Amino acid sequence: MTGRLSLLALLWGPGTRVTHLILAAWLALAALPIWAQSVLPVPPLTARVMDSTGTLTAAQQAELDAKLAAFEAARGAQIVVLMVPTTQPEDIAAYAQRVGDSWKIGRQDIGDGLLLVVAKDDRTVRIETTKALEGAIPDLAAKQIIDGALTPRFRQGDFAGGLDAAADQLIARISGENLPAPAPGATPRSRGGEDFDWGSLAVFVFFAVPIGARVLSSLLGRKLGSLFTGGAVGALAWLFTGSLLIGIVAAVFGLVFALISALGGLGQSGGMGRRGRSSGWGGPGGFGGRGGFGGGLGGGGFGSGGGG
What we know:
Blueprint: H1 2-12, H2 17-37, E1 49-51, H3 58-75, E2 78-84, H4 92-103, E3 113-119, E4 124-129, H5 139-155, H6 159-175, H7 198-220, H8 222-241, H9 244-262, E5 275-280
Parallel strand pairs: 1-2, 2-3
Antiparallel strand pairs: 3-4, 4-5
C-alpha cells in the first residue's frame, strides 16, 4: 500500500508536469472510442433522399429524389432529405450539424445546399441551410414550411406527402434566388468528408478551447478539466474527419492547449454560426418545438453554434 501511495505521489507531485500530460493524454485517448460510439454515426451520402426508418416506399423515395435531382440540374442548388429513427443522445440540431459538416451539401464555391433532417421517433424535424440560401429561406419561411407543410402531414402519418410538399415550397423559394447557373454538363455532388474544414477546427481550438478549459478547470480542477477538454477536441475531430489518427493528434493538442490556457495565458472568445430551424410535431394536443434561426454554412460546409 505504501508503495502505491509513493508511486501516486511521484506521478502527481510537484514538478512532474510532463508525466501529467502523458497520463492525461492517455486517458483522453482511451475515452475517445467510448464517446464516439455513443452518438449516431453519419451515414455515407448515397442519394438525395435517404430513409433509414423504412417509412418511405422505394417508389416514394425515387419520386422525391427525381424531383430534387431535376431541380439541382436546373438551378445548381442541392437539397438533401435524411430520415432517421432518432438522433439520441444528441438533439436534432447537433446531429444535423455533424451531417452537414460531413456531407458538405451544395456547390463548393457557392455554398448553396439545404439539409432537411427528420427524426421520426423523436418527432422532430430540422432544416439547415447554407449562407447562399439564407435570403431564400429566412426564419419566417422555415417556420412556415415546417408548421404548414411538414408538421400537419407528419401528424397524420403522411411522411411522403409532407416531404413532397416541403420540397415544393423549398424549390419555389430557392428558384427565386439569384444564384449562379450550373455549368453546362456539370453534375453537382456532395464532397462528403474529403474536404474537411480545417479553418473551423482551428477557430474552435484557439477560441473555444481556452474558454472551455477555464470553465472546466474551475469546476473540476486544472488537470481533470484539461483532460475533459482534450478528449472533447479529439472526439470532435474524429467525428468530423472520420480519421482516428487526426482525432488522436487533436486530442493531444487540445489537452496541451487547454493546460496552457488554464494557466492563464489565453482566452479570447469567438464563434461561428449557422442557419437552422428545429421543431417537433405532437399528437392531437399540440406541437413540440424549439427554434432560433442563426448563422450559416458557406462554401459547402456547416458552421458551429445555432439555434435551439
